[in-house]
Amino acid sequence: MTLQQLRYFLSVADSLSFTKAAKENYVSQTAVTRQIQVLEQELGAALFARSTAHVRLTATGAHFCKACQEIVRIWESAADEARQIARSHTIALALPTAVEQEVAVGPVREFRARHPEVAFSFTGGVRQELINDLVESKIDLLISLALDLPDLGVSKPSPCPRPTRC
Asked: What is the pLDDT of residues 113-126, one digit of tens each?
C-alpha cells in the first residue's frame, strides 16, 4: 500500500468517478483503476461498487475512507514539519570575494560532515551590502577578511573560561 494509492482512492471516493480522479491527479484513468485494484487485492475487499453508470463506496470503502483521510492528513502534516525543520537548519552564508570563499571551504566541509542535517545557502556580493544584509538578518553569517568592518553594536560575549573549549 502506498501513499499515492491512498490519494487515488480518496480522489475516487470524493468524486465517485475514476475519470475525475485521474484528471485531478494528472494520470490516466487506467492508472487510477489499476492502483485501486491493487489496493483492493492487498486489502482483500472491494472498496467500490462499480456499474457502467455509477461508482459508490462499499461499507468497507466508507470505513477505509475515514482512516485514509486521517493517514494522509498525518502524513502531510509530518512532511510539512520536516520541510520547516529543514528550512530552519539552513545557514545563509555570505562570502564577498574568492579569497573568503577559499578560506571558508574547509571549515564548511568539516561542519557539514559533523552536522549533515544543516544546509548552507551561499551568496556573494558587495561587502557593504552584505554587511547590511547581516544587520537586517537576511543572512546568518558573513565571512570577511577585511579589517575595516564597522562596529555593528552587538555586545561581545564574555570570554570563555577555558579557551580550549571555545
From this structure: 888 878 888 888 88
**pTM flag (> 0.90):** no
The CA distance from 16 to 9, in Å, is: 10
pLDDT (tens digit, 9 = 90+) per residue, 103-151? 888 888 898 888 887 888 888 888 888 888 888 888 888 887 765 655 5
For 87-118, b/e burial (b = at least 16 CB within 10 A) is eeeeebbbbbeeebeeebeeebeeeeeeeeee
The helix/strand count (H/E) of the chain reads as: 6, 5
User: How much of the chain is in helix, strand and coil states, percent to nearest 5?
Assistant: 55, 10, 35
Q: How far is CA 58 from CA 12, 13, 14, 34, 68, in A?
A: 12, 10, 13, 18, 15
Strand blocks (E) in 2-100: 48-50, 55-57, 90-94
DSSP 130-146: HHHHHHTTSSSEE----
Nearest to 49, CA basis, from 62, 32, 38, 39: 62
CA distance 16 to 57: 8
